[in-house]
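anyone seen this seq b4? input:
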Amino acid sequence: MTLRLAALAALALTACQDAPPAPVPSEPDPAPAETALPEDPHAGERPISWDQLLERPREKADAKIAYGEGEQQFGELWLLEGDGPFPTVMMVHGGCWLAEIPGTILMDYIVADLRDHGVAVWNIEYRRLGHEGGGYPGTFLDTAAAADALRGIAEDYPLDLDRLVFTGHSAGGHLALWAAARGGIGDDSPLHAEDPLVPDAVVTLAGINDLNAYRENGPGRCGEPETVDELVGGRYGDTSPAEMLPIGVEQVIVSGALDPIVPSPFGDGYGAAADGAGDPVTTEVMSGAGHFELIDPLSPAWADIRAIILEELGADEAR
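predicted toks r here
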């Protein structure tokens, strides 16, 4: 890793762990502690950080499957008991596109929860900045290959690809949305694909869906503008969903009202652009939620997000 990337990684790590919540208007004194949800260990302490999430024990996937020959080119498949086929989510972790930040393990908590609610999940890894071949085009080619690998995986496991949602968090939200949009990339781009697997819908959680806007106006929590420059070098036309509209896939853009890393105006701005381009899009801002509450299955926000994903899959709320 270059010194520049190392400095960016350090900045991102510090920001993810220690970033204070965005200022909010004064509110009345909170309700007594006994009214807080007992199953939520962080009630009254929001927003949390990723290291608080990773303090908890995690369940393990049922299978680790390579979609390429590289060390980072794999996904973890989470399955249910029964014959299926089961509605499926492709999950993409975030981490500012940086190798130094945890990967698939960040998503294990909500992945396990989705599995417990009747959904099979393909939780993917990919090359990031600091990995050999990460950035443009490697990060994008890996995401695409992982998505398209589901066709072959569904031949061996009970996955229903007619009920398929892509979802991702932060930088992973960007990549999940990009993966759904890549069918419009021209054949003059190294990211062009002849027959990409297209989901029924995309649900982005604090997704960085407009790379140029985040580069220019981001709060610096992800090391922007340098990280965006390292990732795509100004190539927005085939990498930034905001530049690839209309996508033609239903989209739900979820933000946390207290998110200091990808503040909610970025989600609102992308949603307005997608709507203006004619795409079916809904924006949701989760009150009381920061960045990592969106991937915390014990947070109040996650229950609403899970319901959104299940609705997009045509699945029942509970098994």
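The chain is about 30% helix and 15% strand. The longest helix spans residues 138-156. kinda curious what u guys think
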